[in-house]
Amino acid sequence: MEATTTSAEPAPPPQAASAAVVSAVFGSGDLLREILLRLDIPTHLVRAAAVSKRWLRHASDPAFQRRFRARHPPRLLGFYVSTSTYPRVRFLTVPHEFFIKPIRKGYF
């Protein structure tokens, strides 16, 4: 006796329909700009802009850059330190999480 199993999972869409949906989503310039706008660190925006010429064009658009700067004001990335035990000047980066916790809790 063979046991038959029925699955409640829907069948996957045909490859052509799936490709059409993906191209419709990634082909939308408005959607791409919104995704880029929600990147929280400017270095992530630079990395995203390196993906393709189209992404670079959207990320380097002056209107987009104004919106990005309004949403993400400049922050301290690090500072230079020189101590008596280590006389060379070196740059220490500040972790992103260092600022997020106090700002969200209102300790500023």
Automatic annotation (TrEMBL):
Signal peptide coordinates: none
Domain of life: Eukaryota
Residue intervals of the F-box domain: 31-68
One Pfam family of this chain: F-box-like
Protein name: F-box domain-containing protein
